[in-house]
Amino acid sequence: MSTVGQVVGGIGGAVIGFFASGGNPMGGLYGAQIGVFTESVLDPEEAENEAIQTKNNEP
């Protein structure tokens, strides 16, 4: 499950990676991975709390 920060980081990373690689789509994919990873490292509590809430809501 993704947090809003991870989604924003992924989109931003994809755009930056795409243009930094000279328009190569692979650069966009790498940028998205780096963006999602960076956001999850910067705000691990939010992702952890969301995972706990999801687990507690399961029947």
Can you describe what's shown?
With 59 residues, this protein is mainly α. It has one domain. The longest helix is centred in the middle third of the chain and has 18 residues. The protein is elongated, with a radius of gyration of 14 Å.
Question: What is the CA-atom radius of gyration, in angstroms?
Answer: 14 Å
Strand content: under 5%
Q: Encode the helix/strand succession as letters.
A: HHH
Helix percentage range = over 70%
Secondary structure elements and their pairing?
Blueprint: H1 4-20, H2 25-42, H3 44-56
Helix pairs in contact: 1-2
Explain briefly what this protein structure is.
It is built from three helices and no strands. It has 59 residues and is mostly helical.
Provide key terms for this protein.
single chain; about 60 residues; mainly alpha; about 80% helix; elongated
